[in-house]
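Project outcomes to date are best conveyed with an example. Our students and postdoctoral researchers have been running inverse folding experiments weekly, and each run begins with a structure described purely in tokens. The record below, which covers 80 residues, was selected by the lab manager from last quarter's runs and is presented without edits.
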């Protein structure tokens, strides 16, 4: 099972959360921001608390490939 499947399953859900609610959820530890853009996009600017794993890398990883404690599937994972 890939890390992608473990975290997101077969169904992807899109949020209707407002930016304010997203910020609050992250601040409260209920959510994380996962930045899946390319390295160049990340270097051109990113959100302060985001975790950077490019989507091309994320799709190839297994749950054992990296430390996944920050990618707790019990938390809301907002992707950017």
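After processing, the design step wrote out the following sequence:
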């Amino acid at each position: 099972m890939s890390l992608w499947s473990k975290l997101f399953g077969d169904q992807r859900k899109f949020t209707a959360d407002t930016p304010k609610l997203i910020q609050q959820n992250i601040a409260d530890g209920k959510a994380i921001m996962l930045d899946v853009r390319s390295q160049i996009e990340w270097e051109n600017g990113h959100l302060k608390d985001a975790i950077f794993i490019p989507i091309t890398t994320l799709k190839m990883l297994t749950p054992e490939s990296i430390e996944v404690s920050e990618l707790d599937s019990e938390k809301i994972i907002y992707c950017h």
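The chain has one domain: 3-10+31-79. The CA atoms of residues 6 and 43 lie 27 Å apart. The training component of this project remains on track.
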